[in-house]
Amino acid sequence: MNKLIKKTLISTVLIAVTFALYHNFALMPEYQGLDEGISDYIITYGLNDTGSLNLITAVLYDYRAFDSLGESTVIFGAVSGIVLILSRKMLPVSSKGLSFIVKRTLGIMTPFIALFGFYVISHGHLSPGGGFQGGVILAAISIIFSIVYGSAFDYRRYSPQTKTVLETVGAMTFLGFGLAGIVMEGAFLNNLGFLTAEKGTLISAGSIPYINIGVGFKVGAGLAIIFYSMIQKTFEEDF
Amino acid sequence: MAVLEIILIVFLIFSAVMAVRFDEELISIIFLSIFSLILTSLYLLHKAADVALAEAVIGAGLNTAIFMSAISQIRHGDSD
Question: What is the pTM of this model?
Answer without folding.
Answer: 0.76
